[in-house]
Amino acid sequence: MFRGFYTVASGMIAQQRRTELLTNNMSNVNTPGFKADQATMRAFPDMLLSSLGDSKIPTENGLSLLNMPTVGALNTGVYMQETIPLFSQGDVRETGFSTDMALIQGEMPINEETGLPGAIFFVLENQDGADRLTRNGNFTLDAEGFLTTANGYYVLDEAGNRIELENDQFQLLENGRIMVDGQEAARVGVAYADDPQALVKEGDDLLRPPDGVVLPNAYGQADITFEVQQNALEQSNVDSARTMTDLMTAYRAFEANQKVLQAYDRSMEKTVNEVGRVN
Questions:
Q1: In the prediction, which pLDDT does 47 show?
Q2: What are the domain boundaries of the chain?
Q3: Can you spell out the DSSP letters for 31-74?
Q4: The Flagellar basal-body/hook protein C-terminal domain covers which part of the protein (predicted)?
Q5: Please, what is the end-to-end C-alpha distance for the chain in angstroms?
Q6: Are residues 141 and 148 in contact, defined by beta-carbon separation less than 8 angstroms?
Q7: Residue 56 contacts by C-beta under 8 Å, 6 or more apart in sequence?
Q8: N or C: fewer beta carbons within 10 Å in the chain?
Q9: Distances from the Cα of 223 to the Cαs of 116, 210, 227, 231, in angstroms?
C-alpha cells in the first residue's frame, strides 16, 4: 500500500515540475531571443518481486529446498530527468531601432554525439568581467557610449573588446561589421557552440559556457552560415498554442494522480479504523 503512495507522489511531483517549466516558457513568450525548455520524463527502474517459500522433499531427513517463484514487476514511479533548451531559430521582427540586432542562423554543423545542430550567440561581458552569451539583441548605448544590454552587460566585438560608439547613427552589415561614416568601427562578436545543450542558463536571457570552455569565433568558418540583421529582434521560439495544450495535459495528469492518492488515503483510513476494529 505504501509503495502505491510513493508511486503516485512521484507522478505528482514530476507533473508539478513540468507545469512550472511550461509556465516559465509561457511567461517568456514575448521575451526576445528566449529559448524554450523541454522536459524529459523517465520511469524509475522496475522492481522484480518474488515470493519466498520452500518445497518439502519426501526423504528420510525431511529436506527442503528454497522456492522463489516470480510474482512480477513493480513500477516505482516517474521523475523529470532533465530540461533541455530548444535552440531553434525564432521569428525575426522589425523594430526600427538601430541598436537592435538579430542573429539569423543558416547552416550549422551537426554534433556527432548529440545528433543536434550547433548554435550561435552574441558575446557579452558581465560586471565581473566574465563572458556570457545571449540571443537577445535588444541593445542600447550607455552614458559612456558603450553598446550594452538592458541589464548593463557590455556587448563585445570579435576580439573580446567592448564596443564603443559616438551615437546610434551607424550601419550594421550582414557580416556583423559596424560602419560609421563608411569606416568600420567594430565587428559584433558572435560565438559558436558545438553543443549548446551544455550551456548553463542563468536567467535574463543569459547563458554561460561550462567552466574552462572557450567558445570559438563563428566568423570565417566554412561550415557555419549566419547573418546579423539591424533594426530587428529575434523573438522567442515558444509555441504558445502547443505550450497551453501541454499545460492542460500536465494539469490533468497531476489531477489524476491526486485522485488516486485520495483513493489510497481512504483505503488506509478504512484499514486502520474498520478492518482492525475488535467488536
A1: 67
A2: 2-44+78-83+239-275, 87-234
A3: STT---EEEEEEEPPPEEEE--EEEE--STT--EEEE--EEEEE
A4: 229-273
A5: 25
A6: yes
A7: 62, 63, 64
A8: C
A9: 15, 24, 14, 27
Exposed, middle or buried, 268 (CB in 10 Å: 0-12/13-18/19+)? middle
Do 238 and 36 form a contact (C-beta atoms < 8 A)? Answer: yes
d(CA 272, CA 246): 39
Could you give the angle at the alpha carbon of 119 between the alpha carbons of 118 and 121, nearest 5°?
150
For residue 164, the number of C-alpha atoms closer than 13 Å in the C-beta half-sphere is 4
pLDDT in tens, 180-227: 999 999 999 999 999 999 899 888 889 998 887 889 999 988 889 999
Long-range contacts of the stretch 60-65 (C-beta < 8 A, 24+): none
List pLDDT tens digits, range 177-187: 999 999 999 99
How far is residue 262's CA from residue 134's CA, in Å, rounded to a whole number? 45
Amino acid occupying residue 173:
L
98 φ, ψ to 5°?
-65, -25
Beta bridge partners of 212: none
Q: Which three cell numbers stand for residue 4?
A: 502505491
pLDDT tens figures, 35-81? 999 888 877 766 666 666 656 666 566 566 666 667 666 667 787 88
**Could you tell me the sign of the dihedral formed by the alpha carbons of 148, 151, 153, 156, in that order?**
negative
Task: Give, as one character, the DSSP assignment of residue 209.
Answer: P
The one-letter amino acid at 79: Y
29 φ, ψ (degrees, to nearest 5): -65, -25
Q: Which residue has the cell 537592435?
A: 100
